[in-house]
Amino acid sequence: MKMPPIQWLQLPQEVLLHIFTFLSPTEKANVRATCTYLRTLVDHPSLWKNSIIVFKSIGIYNARFWDTLQNRKICSVEVSKVTLKQFKKMACSLPDITNVRMDSCLKGEILQGLQPLLNLKQLQLSDCSNVTDHDLFTEIVFFQQLTHLSLCRVTFSSVLPLTSIVLLQNLYSLSLHSKEGIVPERALQYILFRLPKLRELSLAIGNMNKWKLSLCFNMPDNFVSAFEDKPCIPRLQLHKLELMNCGCAGLSTNALNQLSTLKSVCLRHFKYLQHEDFIETILLKLPNLTELKLEWAAPFEPLMCPISSKLENLSVVGTQISNAALVWFSKSANGLKCLNLNFSYGYDEDVVKKFPCLFPHLQKLYLSNTRLTEESLVVLANLYSLQVLDISNNLHLTPEAILAFRKITSNRIGLILERPIESVKYCCW
């Protein structure tokens, strides 16, 4: 029976706020337009704490708009077309901003507009190609409270500008994706050993060879810099490492020793895996590794016998992987809880039917764009720990087959049935 409007409005505010958390932004806007009381509720900061406001053009908004965003305590914004004056307007209107992403080409001294944001923690710049590295880092080091910094399409002219990052002593996450795929290894080595809080690192390293890449993770020797007062830490404490667009495979023993604290490794657009033992070496030399991602990389075929690993999360996205490689992973990481094979290929339905035996502890399984039949879907019901199953973009499963699976599993598994078919977008492309 439908509740009369007057009774619905008499529900406690905390109940209404909880209900509104399930609404989309468009649905919230519709509720907000009904009356002053609901407008006030919809603007409650708890409903917007994880929201990202996307600005296409800042200059078109009036004071009332900025007041609304300020009342909601918006913390994250993404901007495209913007001038220095507009950046200053946004920073003054939204002083609580902690996260800024600029999704267009950075120009001139525009970052000066963010200087009023004393609480800025995360800064992501997707295109730095029109700014010299000297000018870029001169502006960035002003934000010494930053914990996350991501710079894409940077051109490094020399060693010294990059070393100024050591002034950002609170950095937890650093992404350096250069325009030419070249990062000065000496400068990178210098800053890595002088950022004591750094735990996450992402590098687009182009054709950097094994020895130059390894040098970045080796204890630096004598090195001249303007920031010699920053002490050198004895060991890296990285937890997450991402290597992109790499033309080499391998790290020296000394480098792997410095990376022994890693819990997650992502190799994206990695060119050489098929004839190297890099994957096996990573699993063998990194004892704390629980997550491995091979995304849009070269085919991988194991060369060694199964080795003991603590791996819990394996992601092979857009990459060829054979039945034999999946079996090898099942023996090397028998405690695997998450397996992502979205857009991957090279294996067949026969090995999918063996997943309950190969990966009995799986809690999440992603098979978007994988050819599955009703028979193989029924077999996957025997994954008794499974909580999430992605079978989107599958043209071979009928609604009847999916309904039968739901009945067999008593709806204990959350099914993902729809996902846009699109290539993954990375900010440095």
Description:
- By secondary structure, the chain is α/β, with parallel strands linked by helices.
- Among the domains are: 1-47, Monooxygenase (Up-down Bundle), CATH 1.20.1280; 263-429, Leucine-rich repeat, LRR (right-handed beta-alpha superhelix), CATH 3.80.10.10.
- Helix content is 29%, strand content 17%.
- The protein contains 17 helices and 15 strands.
- The protein has helices spanning 5-9, 13-20, 25-32, 36-42, 63-71, 84-93, 133-140, 160-163, 185-192, 210-216, 253-258, 278-285, 323-332, 349-352, 355-358, 374-380, 399-408; strands spanning 52-57, 76-81, 99-105, 122-127, 148-154, 173-178, 200-204, 240-244, 264-268, 291-295, 313-317, 338-340, 364-366, 388-390, 414-416.
- A 15-stranded parallel sheet has the order 1-2-3-4-5-6-7-8-9-10-11-12-13-14-15, with no helix packed on it.
- Helix 13 links the parallel strand 11 and strand 12 (338-340).
- Helix 3 runs antiparallel to helix 4 and helix 9 runs parallel beside helix 10 (210-216).
- The longest helix has 10 residues, at 84-93.
- The radius of gyration is 25 Å and the shape is flat.
